[in-house]
Design brief:
Length: about 240
C-alpha cells in the first residue's frame, strides 16, 4: 500500500526542513510505500522560496496563490494524492513524524478506514494552555454525542484516512474546521475511527501557534451543520 503524507505549511521556515527530513527518515515497515505532498498556503516568511528549491522524487510541492486556510490545504493534498491512505502532518514541531509507522501498523492489523492519534491516551497529557485542553474535551464530547463516536481527542492534527473514503465525503470547509468536518463525515458515513496514543509537544502563540478560541466556536457550528446535513450528503458505507 501507499501512504500519502500531506504536510500543510504556512510560515514555518523554522521547522519545515526538519519536518520533511524527519518524515523521510521514517521506515513505515511492511509493504508500505510513501509520497510526501507539501502544500504551501502562500507563506510569506521564506518558506515558499525554500520549498521551491526542493528536487526530490519522493516530495511533491503544491503552492496556493493566496492564503486559503489549512482545511483547503488538506483538501488540495487529498485531491493530488496517489496513495491508498493519507496522513496529515503539521509543518511545526508539535507532532512527531516518527509515529507514522504506528498508524500504518494499525491499518495492517485492523483494515480500518481511519486512525487518529490521541494526545490523551496513555495518560501523559501535555497542553500549553488550559483553555485548549478544556476546549478539546468539550469538542470531543460533542462529536461523540452527535455522531456516535468513541473518540478521546477529536482535535488531533494527525489523522490517517483511506483515500477513497475521504474523496467521497464532500468536504467543504477551508480553515481549521476541517479537523472536525472530517471525523463528522467519516462517522456519518458509517465508518469506524480507531485511535492510538501519540506524543505531543505544544508550542505557544509566541512560537507560532495559530489556532484560537474562536476556532472552537466555529467547530461547534460545523458539527451542528453536519449533523443536520446542511453541507451536502456523504456516501454511506455498506461495511
Amino acid at each position: 500500500m501507499k501512504l500519502s503524507v500531506i504536510i500543510c505549511c504556512y510560515n514555518e521556515i523554522a521547522t519545515i526542513e526538519e519536518v520533511i527530513a524527519n518524515t523521510q527518515a521514517v521506515q513505515l515497515g511492511g509493504d508500505w510505500e510513501r509520497e510526501i505532498l507539501v502544500v504551501d498556503n502562500y507563506s510569506t516568511d521564506g518558506t515558499r522560496e525554500l520549498l521551491q528549491q526542493i528536487d526530490d522524487p519522493e516530495i511533491h510541492t503544491v503552492f496556493h496563490e493566496q492564503n486559503l486556510g489549512k482545511g483547503m490545504s488538506i483538501r488540495t493534498g487529498i485531491g493530488a494524492m496517489e496513495g491508498d491512505y493519507f496522513i496529515i502532518q503539521d509543518a511545526d514541531a508539535e507532532y512527531d513524524p516518527a509515529e507514522h509507522s504506528k498508524f500504518c501498523r494499525k491499518v495492517e492489523e485492523t483494515g480500518t478506514t481511519a486512525v487518529f492519534g490521541s494526545r490523551v491516551l496513555g495518560g501523559d497529557v501535555h497542553y500549553e494552555y488550559a483553555h485548549a485542553y478544556v476546549g478539546v474535551k468539550v469538542l470531543t464530547a460533542v462529536t461523540n454525542f452527535l455522531f456516535g463516536g468513541h473518540l478521546t481527542d477529536v482535535a488531533t492534527a494527525t489523522k490517517m484516512v483511506r483515500a477513497d473514503v475521504a474523496k467521497s465525503l464532500n468536504l467543504t470547509t477551508t480553515d481549521f474546521n476541517l479537523d472536525f468536518e472530517l471525523p463528522d463525515k467519516i462517522l456519518l458515513a458509517g465508518h469506524e475511527i480507531l485511535e492510538i496514543p501519540i506524543s505531543y509537544n505544544p508550542r505557544t502563540y509566541a512560537e507560532g501557534k495559530k489556532i484560537k478560541t474562536s476556532d472552537g466556536i466555529k467547530a461547534l457550528i460545523t458539527m451542528c451543520r453536519d449533523r443536520l446535513g446542511l453541507s451536502g450528503g456523504v456516501l454511506k458505507s455498506n461495511g
